[in-house]
Write a sequence for this structure.
């Protein structure tokens, strides 16, 4: 009887000690980050004046003036599968000097998702693609970051040129979903 | 039967009953489970206002929550314990680094130590802090790095799992 009671008490105490052993519990907390669609566009400034200069030799056609010192800079975030395009146009009352046309070629930077050049366009009042396939990217803000904008004043008809026929135009660049 | 023998049997039974009651009381105490509660989630909403600068700039890479973005309470403890953390991702990005640290001691009769330096929360369990007894409102702060426009327009979410082990 005494041995049985000792055994029983030992068993109960063992069980009690086991209950004092380590227990565990868990809980959770949620962390969420949402990035919204971002489309921010800017330029590094205005291009230099495109001035038609006299040719080196009489009888020759003047060279087409060009300037490529300005850049379009953009920050873009898009959802998976979405791309954007950069378009250019001028106002309905804008135009090139007589006998000329204004050409534009945009060359995007080499960074990921900054897009592909759509080639040279002739400026008009219709928004026209100059860079396509822009994804989530940031071109950078340095002086030579972004899509380089090369403007050319193309002399199409020499005999139509009028001395002093100066034009100031406003080019609108738009970053929009494709 | 001798009168003394009958008295001895009753006293022995009483002692056994007292002992058994004490052990059962101890068992009841051991069965009261330690518990942990963490209140407060963290939600970030980023847009063009979070760019580092003008057009062409990237998003700010690092974000820090309030110093008491989450608070921890431990109940049911009568000894030492430790808290470990791990991340359970639902829609996360490997470039995002989530860290956590303790910014205070809360209140209560218990104590808490460790965890005052940022710990990167990974998908593997890591000890975050230790303590003893019951504490309430221990504040946590969180940090998120690796944010970039390259993540795209999307929502990223994960869950921090806190596990307390102890007495």
């Amino acid at each position: 009887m005494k041995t049985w009671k000792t055994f029983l008490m030992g068993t109960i105490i063992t069980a009690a000690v086991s209950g004092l052993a380590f227990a565990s519990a868990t809980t959770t907390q949620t962390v969420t980050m949402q990035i919204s669609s971002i489309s921010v566009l800017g330029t590094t400034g205005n291009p230099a004046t495109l001035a038609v200069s006299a040719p080196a030799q009489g009888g020759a056609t003047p060279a087409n003036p060009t300037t490529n010192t300005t850049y379009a800079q953009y920050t873009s975030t898009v959802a998976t599968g979405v791309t954007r395009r950069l378009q250019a146009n001028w106002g309905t009352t804008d135009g090139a000097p007589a006998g000329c046309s204004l050409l534009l070629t945009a060359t995007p930077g080499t960074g990921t998702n900054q897009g592909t050049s759509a080639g040279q366009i002739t400026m008009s009042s219709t928004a026209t693609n100059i860079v396509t396939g822009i994804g989530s990217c940031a071109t950078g803000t340095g002086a030579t970051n972004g899509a380089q904008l090369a403007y050319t004043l193309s002399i199409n008809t020499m005999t139509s040129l009028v001395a002093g026929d100066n034009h100031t135009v406003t080019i609108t660049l738009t970053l929009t979903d494709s | 039967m001798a009168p003394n023998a009958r008295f001895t049997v009753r006293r022995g039974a009483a002692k056994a009953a007292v002992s058994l009651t004490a052990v059962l009381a101890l068992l009841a105490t051991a069965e009261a489970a330690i518990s942990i509660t963490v209140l407060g989630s963290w939600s970030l909403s980023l847009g063009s206002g979070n760019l580092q600068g003008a057009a062409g700039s990237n998003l700010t890479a690092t974000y820090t929550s309030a110093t008491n973005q989450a608070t921890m309470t431990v109940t049911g403890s009568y000894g030492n314990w430790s808290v470990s953390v791990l991340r359970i991702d639902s829609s996360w990005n490997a470039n995002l680094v989530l860290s956590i640290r303790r910014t205070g001691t809360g209140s209560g009769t218990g104590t808490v130590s460790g965890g005052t330096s940022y710990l990167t929360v990974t998908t593997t369990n890591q000890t975050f802090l230790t303590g003893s007894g019951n504490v309430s409102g221990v504040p946590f702060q969180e940090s998120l790095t690796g944010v970039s426009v390259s993540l795209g327009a999307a929502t990223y979410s994960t869950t921090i799992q806190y596990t307390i082990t102890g007495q």
